[in-house]
Amino acid sequence: MASGKGATMTLSDGGSGDETYKNIPVGVNGNELSFDFGFKGGPKGVIAVLSDDKQSITFPDGNSWSKNQNKYDGIYKDPKYPNGYRVVRKFRGDTKIINFITEVNDTGNAKDSVFCKGSHASLFSIPTAAFTFYDLPGTSKPVEDEKPTNIVSYALQRPADYSNGVPTVGQFSLEESNSVFPYGTITFPDKTVWTRI
User: Fold this and answer.
1) What is the DSSP letter of 111?
2) DSSP-assigned beta bridge partners for residue 186
3) Residue 8's beta-bridge partner residues?
4) Which of 11, 58, 127, 190 is the most exposed place for a label (fewest CB within 10 A)?
């Protein structure tokens, strides 16, 4: 999340047992970003360069982080909740029906996050692919399981490959020239549009 003089980031190395680190300060000076990886025992004051198209960050050692490398993976904004966010991540359930997990947060406070699973149609669909969200907040029955604290802990709980509530289908836009659904968005039947940031 960016602010006027800097930003904060959430970091996970991506493995199923890896810890997620939140609210890590990032210095911003034009297209240069300053990172302090001391919290993991790494170096401090690492300067990385944000690409002109803002799709990747390159570090001095040649390592590069790409935004939305898995097409739909990423952070989305819901205009109904300007302080909140939506995080969509790839995941495979036990029966391979579940393709992704979504963290839904309406307030911006990580303690208010709710998690749901989902499946998507072929990503080769043109111009959109149907994304089915199971158990979005407001559509599901209460679950008595231990409340996960982040998207990784939810994945580690191995959510069942079945829905506890009403499925909600959104259309993920895959084409930049699509005039109905803007590229990189998920559009729902009620006309709510999540925009990838």
Assistant:
1) G
2) 172, 194
3) 25
4) 190
